[in-house]
Specification:
seven-stranded mixed sheet; alpha/beta; single chain
Length: about 260
């Protein structure tokens, strides 16, 4: 009799354990895995982790910098498009935002290809600046629009002082991911004995479709300012001159295209 009661007790215990396990299993089931749900509900985003990425080390942004000729060898390059990005980069917030800057005289910013600056000299200084920026401990890259326009700018600099000021000067632009290269790229190197300020505007061709057979032209610009303590007024002068040059080139191409189009008689 006691043996029969013992077996009955064991069976009830096993049944209770099975019910608890079944309940636990049902709790752990994901809604998207439940049978009978329509496909529209089952479509959920999958989590994706990118290894070895952290603030200052972003693969997509690094590739974009590579296209600009700078490789962050110290794995510390911060893309700065808004005030919060300054905090992530360990930088102070600007004291004034937006920041109005009176540009330096245009005569202080030499144009590549002019009597004051040959293309060879500009290319030499530009490449040396990119190499030194690549070796910097940290790179700070404010992005935005030239104030009052929709012309995009990316600044690549090692200056923790200038970066907040330049972000406050630029108009905020929509952040695009993955990052895209901008019509104007400014290379600003701080802490050198060399003093240099120059810019170049050139026309490049780019494909307009996936076949890579139809090409169109656009103008891009580069500003290079190097010195012990680069002056933001000089940098702004370069950005504003380049913006005006790009706008003039675009207007000229549009007028030429209009002339080439057949006119209705």
């Amino acid at each position: 009799m006691s043996r029969h009661l013992l077996l009955l007790s064991c069976r009830r215990t096993l049944q209770a354990c099975s019910k608890r396990q079944l309940a636990a299993s049902s709790v752990r089931m994901f809604a998207s895995d439940s049978p009978g749900l329509p496909d529209s509900i089952k479509r959920v985003g999958e989590a994706m982790a990118v290894p070895n990425e952290y603030p200052g080390q972003n693969y997509a942004f690094n590739w974009s910098l590579n296209a600009d000729g700078v490789t962050p060898l110290k794995k510390s390059a911060f893309r700065i498009t808004k005030p919060l990005d300054l905090k992530v980069a360990g930088l102070e917030q600007p004291k004034t935002n937006p920041l109005k800057v009176k540009a330096a005289a245009a005569s202080k910013m030499a144009e590549a290809g002019s009597d004051n600056l040959s293309f060879d000299t500009f290319d030499e200084v530009s490449q040396r600046t990119k190499d030194l920026l690549s070796l910097s401990d940290h790179l700070y890259c404010p992005e935005g629009h030239v104030p009052g326009t929709h012309t995009g700018v990316r600044v690549i600099t090692n200056s923790a002082t200038l970066s907040p000021q330049l972000l406050a000067y630029l108009d905020r632009a929509p952040r695009k991911d993955p990052p895209v290269n901008q019509p104007i790229t400014a290379y600003i190197l701080e802490g050198t004995e060399e003093e240099f300020a120059g810019y170049a505007i050139e026309e490049v061709e780019f494909p307009t479709d996936e076949t890579m057979t139809v090409m169109d032209a656009k103008s891009v610009a580069a500003v290079v300012v190097v010195g012990k303590k680069p002056d933001i007024k000089l940098i702004v002068a370069g950005l504003e001159i380049c913006q005006s040059g790009l706008a003039a080139d675009e207007a000229e191409r549009a007028a030429k295209k209009a002339e080439e189009e057949p006119k209705d008689e």
